Amino acid sequence: MAQTKKKRRRKHRGTQGGRIDTRPARGRPRSRAEAQSRARSRGQKKRKPGDRTPQAPSWSSALKKGGVAAVLFAGLLAVFGQKPWVIPVIAILMLGFYVPMAFLLDRFFYQRHLRKEAQKRQEREADRTGAHQAEG
Question: What is the pTM of this model?
């Protein structure tokens, strides 16, 4: 016997308990192109494991990096038998040195990345406008 039920076109938003998800009502269904562009824009927020683009420099990330370096340095001093009262003093001094250094290093690499991206953009633009001039 042939199936008489029509397949539903949209997903039912209710749960088994009867609660309905609070999503905004859409006036029209999204087209495939709109859905794809939205999915691409959402995916750009997350960093992929192979992504090598540097993040913008921040003092919080510099503090974390400096803290890790200072703790490692303090551990190294403890292993080599430094006096116990000297270890925290040197660790604090190293923290004061490493935090600004980490921030400046992050800023250097981020600005270098931005310059390279701008140069690539200019080259693409020059190739695109150069191709139009050759046709005309």
Answer: 0.55
Do the beta carbons of residue 62 and residue 99 sit within 8 Å? yes
Query: Between the CA of residue 127 and those of 121, 130, 131, 134, what are the distances in Å?
Result: 10, 5, 6, 10
Strand partners, 14: 20
Q: How far apart are CA 96 and CA 93, in angstroms?
A: 5
pLDDT tens, 81-90? 888 888 889 8
Could you give the CA distance from residue 110 to residue 57 in angstroms, rounded to a whole number?
7
What would the DSSP string read from start to end of 74-113? HHHHHHTT--TTHHHHHHHHHHHHHHHHHHHHHHHHHHHH
d(CA 111, CA 30): 39
